[in-house]
Structures are given as structure tokens and as C-alpha cells.
Amino acid sequence: MTFRDRVAEVLAFRTWPTTIVALLIYAAIYTSILVTDDLPSIPSPKRQHGVDLDAAYRDLHYVAGGPHPYNSHRNDDVRTYILSRAESNAKKYPYVHVDDDITSNATWAQAAPVAWKEGGFATYFEGNNVLIRIDGSKPELKGVLFSAHFDSVSTAPGATDDGMGVVTLLQLVDYFAQNQPKRTVVFNINNGEEDGLMGAHAFLEHPWFELSNDFINLEGAGAGGRPLLLRTTSTRLARSFARAAHPLGNVISADAFKRGVVKSGTDYSVYTDAAMEGLDFTFFKPRSKYHTKKDSIPSLGGKAALWNMLESSLLAGKALVDDEGTGGGGSAVYFDLFGEALAVFSLQTFFIVNIVLLVVGPILVTALIFTAYKQRKLYWSSKGWGRFIVAVIVSGVLTFGLGVLYTHINPLIIYTSPGSVMISCLTLSYISFYLTLELFTYLRPIPQQKAIMLLEAYILWWAFLVADTVLISNVQLGGLYFVTFFHVATLTALVIGLLEQFELPAGFRRRRLLPPRIEVHDEANGANEHENDEEHAEADAADERTPLIQANGQAIKDEDLDEDNVIGLWFLQFLLAVPFPVILITEIGVMLLAALGQTLADGSKPLTVYLAVSFVAFLSILPAVPFLHKFHRSLFGIFAFVLAFTAFYNFFAFPFSSSAPLKVFFQQTIDLNTGNTNVSLTGVQPWVMKYIIPEIPSSWGTNVTCTSDTLRAGLPSCTWPALSPAVAPGHSKNWLKFNATLTSPGSARITIRGSNTRNCRLYFSPSTRMTNIHVPLYPLPRDGVSELRLWSREWERTFEVHVAWDGSEGVEGRVACEWAESDGAAIPALDEVMAFLPDWARVTKRTDGLVEGYKRFKL
């Protein structure tokens, strides 16, 4: 064996070198991303940028000591604590101001979701936000708003949603009080976000709203973990967030909100609707514990999650406060790399780059192919074409088919086992690609398979780039940014492959070098004969299977053309074509698994989730396909075993656990005139009806009815007679007092007063649309609403409402009040559900009130 042969065994494009390199690169990528997806460690106090993590953690224990929704007495206690913390700074620094805002009220109306099939609703809200203003050293500059809400839902202490956001703002108040900022800083620590983004609406009515044009909103839509840059309005704002030490974010989440894929909302939308520029920074996983009792301090597992939000908010906030620039720089495309750096580009930049690539790429590739052809160095057989496209189709159909199969057999398995689902899709994608290419290699072997498949891959990504560019131009979609990088990676690998062709010997089919025909005259027969007719006949019949020879007449051996013997360049091609695209798509996959998998309990469509997972798995293997025919066949056996095991598990395993519990939505209603009361549990079937309700004693022997819940994305909601609540003193008839008086045809005056509550409602019959509604001093738009939500900062306030409707006929409906405190034995039905709920399930609220008491009226 020659020295070159020994080198080729290690470095040539052969089975073992290619397999080992691919395994090492994929393993390094997956391991790095999974490790860096975890929370970064907490630095020593000396390296904490001048903020006090321990003090923030102490604040969190008070703020998140128990559920404190707007309509609860503990909410008042939390507010008092926050106000006292803010006022301590105002006493020390003359440029720090605190406003105990108990004057800003807001009214607004909005259309109902399509699923309601009824009129919209209007809201009247009396705010009690805690506002802090720190004057900047350059008061002529527009300020920066920092926002978080201090209320929680009625079923969770709110450590993540939004306790950590609140205590982060308290630390930022301390920091900027001690280090006066360049721009004025305003803090809106608001109340009432959970029940309709109400505190943000109230802030729009405050004079300090006019001081700022940029904002950072801190939120929590999970229960710990790493917070995510959920969305941003502009490139300039995204670049300020890039200053964070460990930024995590992807423009795909912003596109999901913009396109309505994600239905929930945050205060971000209120501020952007008011023409502000900003960032939405939020916790987003695990979703299964969101709005449940597990959104608590013990579930955080320490201070790391709090530190990550605190440090990121401080560094991004400082960058924004020091930024005197104006304008947003246009829509942003951004993505993180290993959670350690944030790449930020303007969408316009991507559009221009795409146009250049679409024009320059084909010209360059065509020029290289034409030159190689003219120099007789292009040895591409017609047998080689189409194998890449066929493999893509086969793998795509099978991989996406597996995702569809999961939705029919065990659609919620991704809820608790997202990794197993992803692994099964990855292995199936690999196996289907590999088997398809092996079949082509066996039936139609060619010497330059890698080069041909790279060209076909480039054509595919060029077509995708066209589609991406059109979407950028027409709908401002930035979430397909990875298409540009896949295209560039494939193009550069292809260019190297084409340059590699010039190292091959120039060749001809044998007939091209035959000597001229030699004529021999047969005098006896009087005829001319060709001495070498047989040789020329054979040459004339030559085709692509005819052996090749060089211009010097030497035969070209198969090994001279075989890509197996190429040393080094294939490795460079692999490094260009595979790692970075796989990094990008794996980062997307990890985010999507965490963000989407557990939204199925909220009513998300399983097909959307599984197709997203299948798409990520498919794209993770796709960059390696031009090299796949050199992978060792033992990988096929290993991956086939892994696929069989994970698929079997995914088809038959129980989809929930105590660490990934199913969320069920609770509400109790009571007719305050008759005392009849029902409890409803909303959640995915058959789990609620088959496994949960039969364990609850009050449901035994009763008629349990299930209907579609339009408030919860059409999830089934099951109802049965319940234990009576005790949410207010005295008999239930006295919990709500109202008077409805017809003042003229088509108009009425209604007064409402609830006991031990500050939240009541008016529901009008579906056939009636209120065309004008007034609460004192605050007229609402004539949008034809059928529901009015009333919120008071005072307890047991009497609301006075004037309503008008089209026509002179009467109107009927319900007057209702809400109760959201479950302390003691106030809501026995909730206590019963929580006592007998399986360990793999958790309760959360269905709507504003855990209990809604109502009385009917007719005018």
C-alpha cells in the first residue's frame, strides 16, 4: 500500500472517514445546543453589574407568596409592598418620582373572536398602577418605558407570571436611581393584565405615557427556564437586546404572533397599538405549569431564572437608555446562536441579499459548468439526475406522514415526550433518505454522485429562495431567514465541487480518437473496402458507457474519476454545506418543541405542532444528503432500531406526567336567585371525561354534559351540579344587587353592586347588540357589543350603566359578578377537584372569575 493509499484511507471521501466526520459534527451540534439551552450560571456578586439578586429574590417571596389576581384582597397587599419599595428611592433622590395612580381609568371595546359567534365586548377599568419616573440627564430626549404586571391569575402564585418581571423592575429602579440615566425612564408596574391587559390600557390615559417612545415589556408565559425575546418592533430595538449577556430569541416567534398562530396577548400589543417601539421579553416554558399552582418559587429550582431575566433586562435596558438614535431601522430578522449571541439584521438587508444571490448564483454555477464542459472535464452521466429530488420526496412524505400518524394515534405524546417524537422523525428522515439513495446507487451507479446531488440541492434551495424573497416583499415575513443560509451553504459547497472537476483529466469517448478510415481497393472484385470498418462501426455505436481515454491516448481508469479518491476537498464541502444550516434549524427545533408541544392543552391543533416537528427533522438531515451515500450501512441498522423503539413508545405511552401535567380549566357558576350551581372542567378529551371527572365524588350519579367551549378554542367542557360556594357573606341572593329600569324605548339604566368583589358584568342576549353604553364620564364606541365588563379599584362599588340598543323592543340578559379568591372553604367545588385530581393533571382558571354568580333581567 502506497503512502497515498494510506492517506486516502483516512482522509478520502470514503465510508469510514465520512461517517465519523458526520457523526462527530452532528453530535457536537446537538450536544452544544442542548447544553446551552439550559440556564447560564449565576456570577459572583461582584460581577452582577451593580444589582442585588438576593434582594430581588426576597422581593419575589412576598410578591409570589400566593395567588393575587386583581379581584383579590392579597392583590392590595402586594401593591402596597411594591409602592413602599418604590417610595424608598423617591426619598433619596430628587430626580426619582412615584405616582400612586388611582385616577387613571380606561374604556375600550373590541370584536369577539370568530369562535364566539356573538357580539364583541366592552371594558370599563379603574386602574391602580404603581408608576415610577426617573428623570434623565438629557430631558429633551424621549424616554424609555419598562413594564411588568404585578397581578397573577387566581390559580397560581405567579412567580414567573409575572413576579420575576416585577422584582426585576424594582431592581432596575434601584439601579437607575443610583446611576441617573441619559434618557428619562418610566416604570409601569401595572395591575389587571391577566384579565385583559387592563393596566396597560389605563397607563395610556396617564400623562407620563407621553414621555416615552420605546419600551421593554417583561412577561411570563411559562414557569421558569430561560426567558426569550418573544418579539420586537424594529432592528434598532433588537440590537439593544443583543447587548444581553446570554440572549435567546428568534424572529419566528414574532412572526407567529403577527400571523395569529399564537393567540395569547401581552401588554406589548397595547403599547405597539399606541405607536410605541419596543421589546417583549418573556419566559415561555414549561407551558404545562403556566397559570397553575406550580408557577411558584420552589418550582424555579433556585435563582438562575430570575438572574437571567434581571441581567438581560438591565443590559438591554442600559443599551436602550443610552441610545439617542431615532427611527426603528425597519423590521428585524434575529436569531440567537447557542444562547450566547444574537444575530440581528434588517429585513430589507435580507431582501437585497436574496436578490443578489438569485442573480449571481446561477450565473456563477452556469459559467463553471460550461467551462468544465468545454474543457472536457465534466463526467456527469444522465443516469445520475433525479436521485436527490426523488429522495427528498420520499423522505418528506414518510417523515411528515409519521407526524400525521401521531396526531391520529397518540396526539398528546409530544406534551411529555417531545424529545422522543423528534428522534423518531429524525431517524425516519435519515433512513428514508439513505434507502432511496442506496437503491439508486445499486441500480444506476455513477462516479460523480456528490457533485450532481449538490447541483440538484442548489436548484431546490434556489427555488425556495425565490419563494422566501416574494414573502419578504409581500407580507414582511422574516421567519424563513434560514432559507438564505441553506442556499448559501449549498452554493459554496457546489462551487468547490465544480472547481474540483477541473482537476480531472480531459477525456473523450473512444471514437473521437480513432484514425481515419483506410480504403483498400480489391482489384479482383473491382470494389473498395475499408480495412478498419469493424473498428469504426464499434466507435460509431459508442455511448456514455463506452470507456474514456485522455487526449494523449491513455485510457482513463475508473478510479481517476471516482469521488472516493478525492482527498480533503469533500471535508471542506461538508463543513460548508452542513454544520451552520443544521445549527440554525436545530435551534429553531428546540424552541418550537418547548413553545408548541404543551399548547395542545390550550386547544392548539396537533397537526400544526407535529408538522412543525417533522419539518425541522427533515431539514436537519437534508444538508447532509449529498454525502449520505458514503455513510456506513451500520448507521441504518442502529437508526432503524431507534426508530422502532421511539415510534412504539410514542404510539402507546401515557402522554402526561407529574412533571408535564395536563391543564384543565375550572369555573363554577351559580344562579343567585335559585341557588342552582354547576361546575365545569374544560380540557382535551378523552382525558377529562374518562379519567378525571369519574374521580370527583360530586359528579357521581349526576348527568354530566359536555359541549364545545368557545372561550377555550373549542375544547370540550363538561358540566355537572356542584357544591355551593361561600365567596361572600350571607345568602347567595344577597351577593349581587341590581336595578334595571327602562328609561325610554331602546334605552335603560342599570345599577349593579356585588358583595366582596370589584368585578361585575352585563351580558345581553345574542340577538341584541348594544349600540351605545355609558358608565360615568366614559362613553364607549358604537360597535354593537353584547357584553360589558366592569372593574373597580374599590370593593363593593355600585356601578351605574346607561345602555341603548337599536329598535324599540325590549332586551333581556344577565347581570353577573365574579369572585376569584379560593382561600379557606370559599369554593368547595374547586377544593374537591384539586383533592381528587390525578397527579398528572393541574387546575387553572377558565376565565376571570373562579365563581360567577348571576341574575337574569328582562326589559
UniProtKB/TrEMBL annotation:
The keyword Iron does not apply. CDD domains: M28_Fxna_like. Keywords: Glycoprotein, Hydrolase, Membrane, Metal-binding, Metalloprotease, Protease, Transmembrane, Transmembrane helix, Vacuole, Zinc. Residues 387-560 form the Vacuolar membrane protease transmembrane domain. One of its GO terms (molecular function) is metalloexopeptidase activity. The chain crosses the membrane at residues 12-35, 350-373, 385-409, 421-440, 452-473, 479-502, 567-595, 607-628, 635-656. Residues 129-299 form the Peptidase M28 domain. GO terms for cellular component: vacuolar membrane. Pfam families: Peptidase_M28 (PF04389), PFF1_C (PF22250), PFF1_TM (PF22251). It is a multi-pass membrane protein. It is an enzyme of class 3 (hydrolase). Its EC number is 3.4.-.-. It is found in: Vacuole membrane. SUPFAM superfamilies: Zn-dependent exopeptidases. Signal peptide: none annotated. May be involved in vacuolar sorting and osmoregulation. This is Peptide hydrolase.
